[in-house]
Amino acid sequence: MGLTIQRLRKAYKLSLGELSEQSGVAKSVISQIEKNETNPTLSTIWRLSQALDASMDEVLQSGAQEKFLEHVGPPGTPLLTSEDGLCRLRIIGWLKTVDWVQWYDFVAEPGGVLESEPHQKGSVENLTVLGGTLEVTVDDRVHRVAAGETLRYRGDFRHAIRNPGDTTAHATMVNILKTTVMD
Fold it and tell me: Which positions ≥6 away from 168 have C-beta within 8 Å?
Protein backbone atom coordinates (compact mmCIF):
# COMPACT_ATOMS: atom_id res chain seq x y z
CA MET A 1 0.00 0.00 0.00
CA GLY A 2 2.89 2.37 0.74
CA LEU A 3 4.11 2.21 -2.84
CA THR A 4 0.62 2.98 -4.09
CA ILE A 5 0.34 6.07 -1.88
CA GLN A 6 3.78 7.21 -3.03
CA ARG A 7 2.98 6.55 -6.71
CA LEU A 8 -0.26 8.52 -6.50
CA ARG A 9 1.40 11.37 -4.61
CA LYS A 10 4.14 11.64 -7.21
CA ALA A 11 1.64 11.38 -10.06
CA TYR A 12 -0.04 14.50 -8.66
CA LYS A 13 3.42 16.07 -8.14
CA LEU A 14 2.77 16.53 -4.44
CA SER A 15 5.47 16.76 -1.79
CA LEU A 16 4.96 14.97 1.50
CA GLY A 17 4.15 18.34 3.06
CA GLU A 18 1.54 19.18 0.44
CA LEU A 19 -0.16 15.80 0.82
CA SER A 20 -0.07 16.29 4.59
CA GLU A 21 -1.82 19.65 4.26
CA GLN A 22 -4.47 18.29 1.89
CA SER A 23 -5.19 15.13 3.87
CA GLY A 24 -4.68 16.24 7.46
CA VAL A 25 -2.29 13.31 7.98
CA ALA A 26 1.07 14.16 9.52
CA LYS A 27 3.98 14.25 7.08
CA SER A 28 5.95 11.81 9.25
CA VAL A 29 3.06 9.32 9.19
CA ILE A 30 2.78 9.56 5.38
CA SER A 31 6.53 8.94 5.12
CA GLN A 32 6.22 5.85 7.36
CA ILE A 33 3.27 4.57 5.30
CA GLU A 34 5.19 5.01 2.03
CA LYS A 35 8.12 3.07 3.50
CA ASN A 36 5.74 0.35 4.79
CA GLU A 37 6.95 1.02 8.33
CA THR A 38 3.46 1.35 9.82
CA ASN A 39 -0.06 0.03 9.34
CA PRO A 40 -2.38 3.03 8.98
CA THR A 41 -5.89 3.13 10.37
CA LEU A 42 -8.85 3.04 8.00
CA SER A 43 -9.47 6.68 8.83
CA THR A 44 -5.93 7.58 7.70
CA ILE A 45 -6.30 5.54 4.50
CA TRP A 46 -9.61 7.25 3.78
CA ARG A 47 -8.14 10.76 4.27
CA LEU A 48 -5.16 9.96 2.03
CA SER A 49 -7.36 8.38 -0.66
CA GLN A 50 -9.61 11.47 -0.67
CA ALA A 51 -6.63 13.80 -1.00
CA LEU A 52 -5.23 11.65 -3.83
CA ASP A 53 -8.58 11.38 -5.64
CA ALA A 54 -8.55 7.58 -5.33
CA SER A 55 -11.01 5.15 -3.83
CA MET A 56 -10.09 3.18 -0.75
CA ASP A 57 -10.49 0.05 -2.89
CA GLU A 58 -7.81 1.31 -5.27
CA VAL A 59 -5.44 2.03 -2.42
CA LEU A 60 -6.12 -1.24 -0.57
CA GLN A 61 -6.32 -3.60 -3.56
CA SER A 62 -3.11 -2.37 -5.05
CA GLY A 63 -1.24 -4.04 -2.18
CA ALA A 64 -1.44 -7.18 -4.30
CA GLN A 65 0.47 -5.64 -7.17
CA GLU A 66 0.33 -6.91 -10.69
CA LYS A 67 3.29 -8.91 -11.91
CA PHE A 68 5.78 -6.75 -13.74
CA LEU A 69 8.11 -7.81 -16.52
CA GLU A 70 9.86 -5.61 -19.04
CA HIS A 71 12.18 -7.06 -21.67
CA VAL A 72 14.30 -4.47 -23.45
CA GLY A 73 16.50 -5.29 -26.42
CA PRO A 74 19.48 -3.31 -27.78
CA PRO A 75 17.37 -0.85 -29.81
CA GLY A 76 15.49 0.14 -26.63
CA THR A 77 18.64 0.57 -24.53
CA PRO A 78 20.01 4.10 -24.99
CA LEU A 79 23.75 4.47 -25.59
CA LEU A 80 25.74 7.58 -24.67
CA THR A 81 29.30 8.25 -25.89
CA SER A 82 32.01 10.40 -24.33
CA GLU A 83 33.36 13.46 -26.13
CA ASP A 84 36.51 11.56 -27.15
CA GLY A 85 34.38 8.69 -28.52
CA LEU A 86 36.30 6.13 -26.44
CA CYS A 87 33.81 5.63 -23.61
CA ARG A 88 30.30 4.23 -23.90
CA LEU A 89 27.54 4.33 -21.30
CA ARG A 90 24.62 2.03 -22.01
CA ILE A 91 21.62 3.00 -19.89
CA ILE A 92 20.49 -0.28 -18.37
CA GLY A 93 18.45 1.19 -15.53
CA TRP A 94 14.74 1.81 -15.75
CA LEU A 95 14.14 5.19 -17.39
CA LYS A 96 11.24 5.87 -15.01
CA THR A 97 13.72 6.10 -12.12
CA VAL A 98 16.23 8.38 -13.84
CA ASP A 99 15.40 11.29 -11.50
CA TRP A 100 16.71 9.44 -8.45
CA VAL A 101 18.76 6.43 -9.62
CA GLN A 102 20.67 5.80 -12.85
CA TRP A 103 22.28 2.49 -13.77
CA TYR A 104 24.82 2.13 -16.58
CA ASP A 105 27.02 -0.42 -18.28
CA PHE A 106 30.31 1.42 -18.86
CA VAL A 107 33.02 0.50 -21.39
CA ALA A 108 36.21 2.53 -21.84
CA GLU A 109 38.74 1.91 -24.56
CA PRO A 110 42.43 2.52 -23.71
CA GLY A 111 42.97 6.24 -23.10
CA GLY A 112 39.23 6.96 -22.96
CA VAL A 113 37.96 9.64 -20.58
CA LEU A 114 34.40 10.34 -19.45
CA GLU A 115 34.17 13.77 -17.84
CA SER A 116 31.10 14.75 -15.84
CA GLU A 117 29.87 18.02 -14.45
CA PRO A 118 28.64 17.92 -10.85
CA HIS A 119 25.27 16.25 -10.34
CA GLN A 120 22.74 17.48 -7.80
CA LYS A 121 23.83 18.06 -4.20
CA GLY A 122 24.23 14.86 -2.21
CA SER A 123 24.45 12.51 -5.20
CA VAL A 124 26.67 9.43 -4.96
CA GLU A 125 28.18 7.37 -7.78
CA ASN A 126 29.02 3.70 -7.36
CA LEU A 127 31.51 2.29 -9.87
CA THR A 128 32.23 -1.45 -9.90
CA VAL A 129 35.01 -2.49 -12.27
CA LEU A 130 34.33 -5.82 -13.97
CA GLY A 131 37.45 -5.89 -16.15
CA GLY A 132 40.56 -3.79 -16.58
CA THR A 133 41.49 -0.81 -14.45
CA LEU A 134 39.97 2.65 -14.21
CA GLU A 135 41.10 5.89 -12.61
CA VAL A 136 38.47 8.14 -11.09
CA THR A 137 39.30 11.78 -10.42
CA VAL A 138 37.02 13.52 -7.95
CA ASP A 139 37.77 17.04 -6.78
CA ASP A 140 41.38 16.76 -8.08
CA ARG A 141 42.05 13.47 -6.23
CA VAL A 142 42.82 10.37 -8.33
CA HIS A 143 41.63 6.92 -7.23
CA ARG A 144 42.64 3.72 -9.04
CA VAL A 145 40.03 0.94 -9.22
CA ALA A 146 40.86 -2.59 -10.42
CA ALA A 147 38.62 -5.47 -11.52
CA GLY A 148 36.47 -6.72 -8.66
CA GLU A 149 36.66 -3.44 -6.75
CA THR A 150 33.99 -0.81 -6.14
CA LEU A 151 34.52 2.89 -5.61
CA ARG A 152 31.78 5.11 -4.17
CA TYR A 153 32.24 8.83 -4.45
CA ARG A 154 30.40 12.10 -4.43
CA GLY A 155 28.80 12.91 -7.75
CA ASP A 156 28.19 16.52 -6.80
CA PHE A 157 31.80 17.45 -7.63
CA ARG A 158 33.27 17.60 -11.11
CA HIS A 159 34.62 14.11 -11.81
CA ALA A 160 36.18 12.00 -14.55
CA ILE A 161 36.64 8.30 -15.25
CA ARG A 162 39.71 7.38 -17.29
CA ASN A 163 41.12 4.13 -18.66
CA PRO A 164 44.90 4.36 -18.12
CA GLY A 165 45.52 0.82 -19.36
CA ASP A 166 46.18 -0.70 -22.75
CA THR A 167 43.09 -2.95 -22.74
CA THR A 168 39.37 -2.18 -22.70
CA ALA A 169 37.92 -1.59 -19.21
CA HIS A 170 34.38 -2.59 -18.28
CA ALA A 171 32.31 -1.49 -15.27
CA THR A 172 28.82 -0.96 -13.96
CA MET A 173 27.89 2.42 -12.57
CA VAL A 174 24.94 3.26 -10.34
CA ASN A 175 24.28 6.93 -9.63
CA ILE A 176 22.04 7.69 -6.69
CA LEU A 177 20.84 11.24 -7.09
CA LYS A 178 18.55 11.74 -4.11
CA THR A 179 20.62 10.85 -1.09
CA THR A 180 21.06 12.77 2.10
CA VAL A 181 23.62 15.54 1.83
CA MET A 182 27.06 14.25 2.77
CA ASP A 183 29.70 16.13 4.77
Answer: 107, 108, 109, 110, 131, 132
Report if pTM > 0.70.
no
Amino acid, res. 141: R
Q: How far apart are CA 89 and CA 79, in angstroms?
A: 6
Integer Rg of the chain from CA: 21
Q: Where in 32-100 does DSSP place strands (E)?
A: 79-81, 87-91
44 closest CA partner among 61, 27, 64: 27
Question: Sign of torsion, CA 175 120 117 100?
Answer: positive
Sign of CA dihedral 20, 5, 124, 158: negative
- Per-residue pLDDT of 44-100, as tens digits, reads 888 898 888 888 777 776 555 556 677 878 777 888 999 999 999 999 888 777 778
The DSSP call for residue 75 is G
The closest alpha carbon to 1, from 67, 66, 60, 68, belongs to: 60
- Buried b vs exposed e over 123-162: b needs ≥16 C-beta within 10 Å? bbbbbbbeebbbbbbbeeeeeebeeeeebebbbbbebebb
Residues 36-54: pLDDT tens digits? 888 888 788 888 988 888 8
